[in-house]
Amino acid sequence: MGLSVPSVWLNLDYYLSLLIWVVAIPVGLYAFIHALLQRADAFTAVDKLTKPAWCAITGVGALLLVISFGGPVSGFAILWLVALCAVLVYLVDVRPKVTEVQQGGRW
Fold first, then answer.
1. The dihedral of CA 76, 78, 79, 80: what is its sign?
2. Structure pTM?
3. What Pfam families does the entry give (predicted)?
4. CA-to-CA distance for 79 and 102, rounded, in angstroms?
5. Could you report the per-residue pLDDT of 76-94, keeping only the tens digit for each?
6. Other beta carbons less than 10 A from residue 83's beta carbon
7. Distances in Å between the alpha carbon of 9 and those of 5, 15, 54, 77, 102?
8. Which residues of the chain form beta strands (DSSP E)?
9. Residue 46 Cα distances to 42, 50, 55, 56, angstroms
10. Per-residue model confidence as pLDDT tens digits over 6-37
């Protein structure tokens, strides 16, 4: 008998990937909605791309996350990863700075 991976581990990998996909969809939608609701001058004030650019990036990212049925285990895996990275860049890098500049300095 050769070494084989038990089927429960294969199923666990599949379900974990699906869980990540299901969590990524609302994250992408949140990033898109957040970008839409911010003032346009806030993006340029923090030396980031313009508001229309970030709305397009997060909007396309959210759309790709939604339509890539099955997430990372589907045929759209590379598009899914690119979309998730784009959305996460907005949430980790752009959103905090845009929010901070709109709230004013913390004295």
1. positive
2. 0.82
3. DUF2516 (PF10724)
4. 32
5. 788 888 999 999 999 999 9
6. 24
7. 7, 10, 39, 20, 47
8. none
9. 7, 10, 16, 18
10. 666 668 877 888 888 889 999 999 999 999 99
Greatest Cα pair distance in the chain? 69
**Among all chains, which residue has been given the structure tokens 């070494």?**
3
8's tokens: 């429960």
Residue 95 amino acid letter: R
Query: What are the tokens at 57?
Result: 């990036």
71 Cβ partners below 8 Å, 6+ apart? 17, 18, 20, 21, 22, 24, 65, 77, 80
- For tokens 């890098």, name the residue: 93
The pair of three-digit structure tokens given for residue 24, joined into one six-digit string: 């990524």
